[in-house]
Automatic annotation (TrEMBL):
Localisation per UniProt entry: Cell membrane
Coiled-coil blocks: 240-267
Transmembrane portions of the chain: 90-109, 121-139, 145-170, 182-206, 212-233, 293-316, 336-355, 362-384, 390-418, 439-459
Annotated protein name in UniProt: Major facilitator superfamily (MFS) profile domain-containing protein
UniProt KW Coiled coil keyword: yes
Organism whose genome encodes this protein: Globodera rostochiensis (Golden nematode worm)
GO biological process, one term: pyridoxal phosphate biosynthetic process
Length: 803
């Protein structure tokens, strides 16, 4: 590789330096008995590397708590609830802006390191950490969520500087034979701080709605530690020689660092290198992109890109969420995250031992191979875990393998190897470019991960909807199927004793593992409809209109609610033949309604293979006392609710989706708005209650205690919460979404209007772009006359049956 370098443009010493470092047959280093500068290493890593790792991981476990506080703060500041899309966007910004700050901070690594010195730059960087920690801690107590986001950005600046300054300082104060091991210690400190951040986020420490701000205040400890210790550390002897011309001080520091007086040879080597490289005033970053530095720089950039695009930071930022989506429930995702952090620390310790024995290239490539294997299997196992519960643990195993692979080499080597690739005068500038690259990729991954997750989930659903009818049905039972949405779990043998009965809605330890799996699967299927529109249809032609408009599902009805109100009489289950005809012409899920308490109608609907059953108050109730016990069925159920207590009772019976009852068939959205606001308000109230108050609330509202506690802890219903009843315009649909609904049911509002096809498409667009007034204004034009509608107060009473 040295042959690529233009030898005419560099000194003989630089040529030799690059040849030694870039030769692809790099010699393995031998262990050394050289003394390591322990005091400097501890001060530097505990004070600086800690901030980098800690703030990567500290936002993970308390994510739901902080998100809920964001929603509260937003409502207090602006007088209206935050929409789901805006909440997701705000949270993505809060997570990723840390990396944006790191990217910007990385740009200044070289300038500060060469101007102030390595040690002084680290010391002054604590000012940024103090400001950031103060902002993030105070934000909760003053109720301003964007102060927290600003604090994340400032701590990102601090971490970006630290990520370049720490390896630079450690490499320059270490002897040649210890550079790899000492350089790896910076990454070891990062992994330890990530683990600490995860532990302090557990509920028995600071992971509660009252104490989560102390997670960020905890970061003051390493700041104070470094302010007290770093002034007593030595400056880099190489900096003193090359930039400050303080030869005597460099010699004194070398003696202290090496623990011996005979440092003449090393000092002369430093002086020779400094002399041949001149000074930093004769070098600028642009020169890195010219020979002889362009190839070492390319190598450094690609090593940093390989580290970040491995997805390891996405795993750190979102590990708890990943484990939840893989099927783990209760506190298992939190403890799986702790296990991941522990493995990361242990393997990084092993890496510091191996680095000088196996070489940089071997460990880095081995780590990348392990990453490729583990990420592929993680993707597969997360899909399969939706139906086969024990695959959740396959996901954990390969997330751990992913962590092991990164810790083997890609996690630490890129940070210090860049310092070995470049001579002294180019080292700081090269660090700036490398750190900027790393944090840019980090920011991209942190921002795109949630969006990519949604994107690939939609691709999975779309794929199965389109092709399951051609013999793939038996091979892809985890996806929507136009013939049969039910999951076949008969072959699943799971010996895992998971006592999380909350997801089942009942405290029933006798429920089988298969029942738990089916319950989790049904809720997952309901979640796939989030952000969409479910349309009531009375025949195959209307179903085709709904699908063409972009509906995510259709509800097969003999009469839409407006006609039921108009005609009167007894409203019953739809004709199975009509349901069959609808299923034949669409590829999206088909729902159907049964009467409240009429479990035989539900049995018939399950037999004709509908994808969801709606036990609906729109139809005439068959039982004035009892609802259907939905746990007996394999098909997921939808139920209406006007209040949180009613919603939790329906969930305890087995409902996989809740919709507000609204005032179906009225064309008047006022009742739906009332019910959405009521449920959201009650949820916010629960999150502020202590255990005794939650028990009392559950008793007063006849709600299952386990579900009450889960709702209070998570800040949302245990199942998706959709809105229905009286939606007639795109504005109505957007209103419900902005109030917190996760999808919208529409029926009479479309097919009782002048132009059903155009109105249906407009309502779908309104749900997608519900927080964009300009888009809503455009799609609301030229839709024709909406359904006449009626005043809910005089529309006649609908069945409530709130039990």
């Amino acid at each position: 590789m040295a042959g690529i370098v233009n030898k005419e443009n560099i000194s003989s010493q630089d040529e030799e330096h690059l040849e030694n470092l870039l030769n692809k047959n790099e010699a393995k280093r031998k262990p050394s008995n050289e003394r390591a500068p322990i005091f400097e290493i501890v001060s530097c890593t505990v004070g600086s590397s800690f901030q980098f790792g800690y703030h990567c991981g500290c936002i993970n476990l308390p994510a739901d708590l902080i998100r809920h506080w964001f929603a509260e703060s937003y409502e207090q500041l602006y007088g209206m609830p935050i929409s789901e899309v805006k909440m997701e966007t705000t949270w993505a910004i809060a997570v990723s802006i840390f990396a944006v700050g790191g990217m910007i901070g990385g740009i200044f690594v070289g300038k500060l390191a060469d101007r102030l010195g390595r040690r002084q730059a680290l010391l002054y960087n604590n000012a940024l950490a103090l400001v950031a920690v103060s902002l993030m801690t105070a934000a909760k107590h003053v109720g301003i969520y964007w102060l927290f986001i600003i604090g994340r950005f400032v701590i990102g600046l601090n971490a970006g500087l630290n990520s370049g300054l720490v390896p630079l300082y450690l490499i320059e104060i270490s002897s040649t034979n210890l550079r790899g091991s000492v350089g790896s210690i910076a990454q070891l400190a990062v992994t330890i701080s990530i683990l600490i951040s995860q532990i302090v986020g557990l509920p028995f420490l600071f992971g509660t709605s009252e104490r989560w701000s102390f997670i960020f205040a905890f970061a003051l400890i390493p700041i104070l530690f470094q302010l007290c210790t770093l002034p007593f550390c030595t400056e880099s002897p190489k900096f003193n020689v090359a930039f400050s011309k303080r030869i005597a001080e460099a010699e004194r520091d070398l003696k202290r660092l090496r623990g011996r007086n005979d440092v003449k040879d090393e000092l002369e080597q430093i002086m020779t290198e400094a002399s041949s490289n001149q000074t930093t005033s004769n070098f600028n970053t642009i020169q890195l992109f010219k020979k002889p530095f362009v190839w070492p720089l390319t190598l450094a950039i690609f090593m940093h890109l390989s580290q970040q695009f491995s997805g390891i930071n996405a795993a750190i930022f979102y590990s708890t969420s990943i484990f939840k989506k893989a099927g783990l429930v209760g506190q298992l995702p939190n403890y799986a995250t702790i296990l991941m952090g522990t493995v990361n620390v242990l393997m990084t310790i092993v890496s510091t031992y191996l680095i000088e024995r196996l070489g940089r290239r071997t460990l880095h490539i081995a780590g990348l191979v392990g990453l490729a294997i583990s990420t592929f299997i993680i993707a597969i196992s997360m899909i399969v875990a939706k139906t086969i519960y024990w695959f959740s643990f396959v996901t954990i195993v390969f997330v751990l393998l992913m962590v092991v692979s990164v810790a083997t080499g890609p996690g630490s080597i890129p940070w210090f190897y860049v310092n070995e690739l470049f001579p002294m005068n180019a080292r700081a500038s090269a660090n700036s470019v490398a750190v900027f690259t790393n944090w840019s990729a980090n920011s991209l991954v942190a921002t795109l991960f949630p969006m990519l997750e949604i994107f690939f989930m939609n691709i999975r659903s779309s794929f199965s909807q389109r092709f399951c009818g051609d013999g793939i049905e038996e091979k892809m039972k985890t996806n929507f199927n136009k013939k049969n949405l039910k999951m076949s779990l008969n072959n699943n043998n799971n010996n895992n004793n998971n006592n999380n009965d909350v997801i089942n809605g009942i405290a029933d330890e006798s429920q089988t593992t298969e029942a738990r799996q089916l319950r989790a699967t049904n809720i997952g299927l309901a979640e796939c409809l989030k952000g969409g529109v479910i349309m009531d249809v009375m025949n195959a032609e209307q179903a085709k209109i709904a699908q063409k408009a972009g509906a995510v599902a259709v509800m097969a009805l003999e009469r839409i609610p407006a006609l039921i109100r108009q005609d009167g009489g007894v409203a019953r289950m739809s004709d199975p033949e009509m349901i069959r005809q609808i299923r034949e012409v669409v590829t999206i899920p088909v729902m159907a309604k049964c009467r409240i308490g009429h479990f035989v109608e539900a049995q018939i609907l399950e037999a004709v293979q509908v994808d969801f059953i709606d036990e609906s108050e729109v139809l005439t109730p068959a039982d004035n006392t009892n609802h259907i016990w939905k746990h007996k069925f394999r098909v997921p159920f939808v139920c209406g609710a006007r209040s949180l207590g009613e919603a939790l009772r329906r969930i305890s019976e087995g409902a996989a989706m809740i919709r507000t009852k609204g005032d179906a068939g009225s064309g008047n959205v006022v009742e739906a708005v009332t019910h959405v606001r009521a449920i959201q308000s009650e949820i916010r109230t629960l999150t502020k209650m202590n255990e005794e108050e939650l028990m009392s609330w559950a008793r007063v509202n006849s709600a299952p205690v386990a579900l009450v506690f889960q709702t209070a802890r998570e800040g949302h219903l245990p199942v998706p919460n959709f809105a229905a009843g009286g939606v007639a315009t795109p504005a109505d649909a957007a209103l419900l979404m902005q109030l917190g609904a996760e999808a919208v049911f529409v029926g009479s509002g479309i097919f009782m209007s002048d132009n059903p096809a155009k109105r249906a498409a407009a309502i779908v667009q309104a749900v997608t772009h519900f927080d964009k007034p300009n888009v809503l204004a455009k799609i609301s034009c030229g839709l024709g006359t909406p359904m006449k509608g009626m005043d809910s107060a005089g529309a006649g009473k609908t069945v409530t049956l709130e039990q």
